[in-house]
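Hi X.,

You mentioned you wanted examples for the new student's onboarding notes, showing what a folding record looks like when two proteins sit in one file. Here is a clean example. The first protein comes first, with its sequence line followed by its structure tokens.
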Amino acid sequence: MSAPTVFVARLAGAGVFDPAGERIGKVRDVVTVPRQDASPRVVGLVVEDTSRQKVFLSIGRLLSIGGGQLIASAISDRRFRQRGGERLLLADVLGRQVRLRDGSGATLEDLSIAERGPGEWEVDELFLRKPKTGPFGKGPTALARWHEVEHEPGAEHDTEHLLASLEELPAADAASAMLDLPQQRMMEVAEDLSDDRLADILEEMHEDRQIQILNALEDDRAADVLDQMEPDDAADLIAHMPADRGETLLELMDPEEAEDVRMLLAFGADTAGGLMTTEPIILASDATVAEALALIRRHEVAPALAAAICVTLPPYEAPTGRFLGMVHFQRLLRYPPNERVGTLLDDQIEPVLSSTSAAEVTRQLAAYNLVSVPVVDPAGRLVGVVTIDDVLDHLLPEDWRAQEEAPRG
């Protein structure tokens, strides 16, 4: 089956619905960020909600496009604000004059976006209109790829190229590249990066640097970035802030994200509760192997979290109903798609209490060669998982990121 392809001009005004069929808004634009030697990456949509406010819909929350409508899991309740490195395809790109390789000019009348993987969209083909050759009718049309045309002849935009390079680098390398910039330049780049990319990069920096960058952002923007961070990383960062600043940002965050962060802040730093993340993959026992693998394949799921799924009784968001067990992805691969995950539980994996010491969690991960261990409360409800990268962060010296950030010479 070919990857879904959608023409952007046809998205304008398309209805956006939640999975239950309730209308939650309509599309106003498509948000992209540049990449080096590749078509721009689609990061989300601008949606006008039912209160006529323009908000951001992350592309990862888009469930389907078809029949002139979109299905999405949720949209933000904050006004959309365009970052310096972002381009709106309808407002900024359509209608732009471009130059083809043969030197002729054309107008970009439409373009398509295509899904290259789960939640991974990019600009695909450009629909171009050349100047008319006679007194009547329209000029001929042509199709081209993004890098087959010159979009702004003779213009070089250093910031756009820098942002494109940061989009392509692994988060840890992008963090190092940002820290090599002059102070003012680093802050300018932080302001222009998309919320999710800045969140990824901040997670790879020392707390002092994280706080320095967040303090330079307006409160609303800082809260947006914290929303995009893993809850445990956001909790660690807020814990290092002055109490009043941290509380201000928690109040501005998405209520569900803030609730997870507040829960993590209540645990001691040297306990399983203080180390865990609250967003594991959770399924019911009657879910199928096919459903489990589909969740694991989502691009936004970290590799350590994708290594296993947790099976619980309802509800299926932490804190869940009673924890039943875990299933590793390797075991999922050995069974047919219609097999129920409740029959595949690994009976050798025992959960730990949220009050369990970090040292005991480390011993359990090492003893059983685990990538993650489930964490439950005294009632046996799943509250999160501790992953191997959480433990490594805990075991390394507090200043290990600062050592990585030291000037190289």
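Then the second protein repeats the pattern, sequence line and then tokens:
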Amino acid sequence: MPDKGAAGTGPVGSSVEAVFREERGRLLASLVHRFGDLDLAEEVASEAIEAALVHWPTDGVPSRPGAWLLTTARRRAVDRLRRDRVLATRLAVLQAEAERADAAPPADADRDLPDDRLALFFTCAHPALPAQDRGALTLRFLAGLTTTEVARAFLVPPATMAQRLVRAKRKIRDARIPFRVPGADELPERLPTVLQAVYSIFTEGYAASSGPDLQRTDLAEEAIRLARILRRLLPAEREVAGLLGLMLLIHARRAARTGPDGGVVLLDDQDRGRWDHRMIDEGRRLVLVALTGGPPGPYGLQAAIAALHDEAADVASTDWPQVVALYDVLLGLVPSPVVALNRAAAVAMRDGPEAGLALLDELADDPRLRGYHLYPATRADLLRRLGRYGEAAAAYRSALTLVGTEPERAHLLRRLESVIAEEPAD
């Protein structure tokens, strides 16, 4: 599929782009389901978008644009199969169904697309694929991130990511990985990868890795939509409820996270009246589901922490002892340096900045945090609270070399200027 923005410019181009963003996952999944070939599905989906740019300016945008794109892409796929003698056997199997679809009356194009996205999610998360390839495939083909954006998420060059995606698609084809939702016996192994992929989409939307904006709400909302689908399909899976609850509780703050100029507004300074309290209520109900019926999972625990933040009247009145206790349990399940960093920040709120700083110092040599701007930024804030302005300035400078978005850069620059101003003159 083309990268985002390839659909064209102007009113019609904008309409195609809007449809593509809304329908891309379902379109690709439906084509893979029908033809069993991810490369073919990508190519004909792209051709369908190009056809829309030709026909829609004169014919108008159809009432079911996604179904129009599917019908067009399906016919292009059948044409390709007919021309390719190597694929004659596959065509023999598919031809009867495809020709029936081609012969359908015009009203056929007005039907909604079938939603095969979950099957494509589980295909991308198949255990035969390396873990890093599973996440990359899901972000590229289900969320519609560009290859460059996926590369940034995995901290590799775009050319490296492009090769990785090609290799992963070849593996799916050569290993004949089935396009289906797995059975109950396979879910424990496969579901965590799917959940991680959805959460990766959300985190790129909630806190963009680079660019002019702090948030990409389209990606965050796409992740929430996908989690809702998972929740409907797997209502007994408590970690699905936990993930959906976590994302809702975080996304509920979106309107208050930036100022009128797009600048960062920290949790301490946010107008909590602007938070989406209906979304918070839904998230809290899901937390109860995630924490009931057995030991909690990582997403349920993170959702419980997010709920404590959302329930508090302000930062000072947050139940920090309970937040730290939940991080203690989470760190036992997920011994991640990022979890340890977040726990240190919570300890600083419970016991004071010196206690939090001591924990951060224990993480200083962890190579997994070397490219993570929030480590030096958190350390700088604690040093500033302790009045160690020179050290804080150095830490803010370190964070500035790693930060990706312009709003975060501007925030760190303001903090750097403030601590420089506090430094005593020689």
